[in-house]
Write a structure and sequence with these properties.
The protein is of the alpha/beta class and 119 residues long. It is built from 4 helices and 7 strands, in the order βββαββαβαβα. Helix 1 runs parallel beside helix 2.
């Protein structure tokens, strides 16, 4: 498995859990790097069940939201599923205001996200 700077990757059975390690996802280059690392899991490593763990994330920019939408589309294009979990209430509110909570599969925590893939 390759080394990543912006994410930590672990396997929970057939589900790949990707913890985003940056507390603030603001900088365009950091967003692109994070996106490329996650995209590599989908395209190069063939991961089809990915849960993004936001437990360390305190803030994310609108550009980061755009990158998440792109990753979700890529995942669906590869017949996979993307789930988001452990999102802080103040960030979750942004997903609700923008109606992105209807686009993404958002779960309370990693355990619930992993269980949802197995259901």
């Amino acid at each position: 498995m390759s080394t990543h700077r912006r994410i930590d990757v672990s396997a929970h059975g057939p589900v790949t859990v990707v913890q985003i390690v940056d507390k603030k996802i603001l900088d365009e280059s950091a967003i692109q790097e994070m996106g490329s690392e996650i995209l590599g899991l989908i395209e190069q490593e063939g991961r089809r069940s990915v849960a993004l763990d936001f437990s360390l994330v305190e803030y994310l920019s609108s550009a980061a939201l755009g990158k998440l939408i792109t990753l979700d589309r890529k995942m669906k294009g590869h017949q996979g599923r993307l789930s988001l979990c452990s999102i802080r209430p103040e960030i979750l509110e942004v997903f609700q205001i923008t109606k992105l909570n209807k686009v993404f599969d958002i779960r309370k925590d990693v355990a619930e996200a992993v269980a949802a893939f197995e259901a």
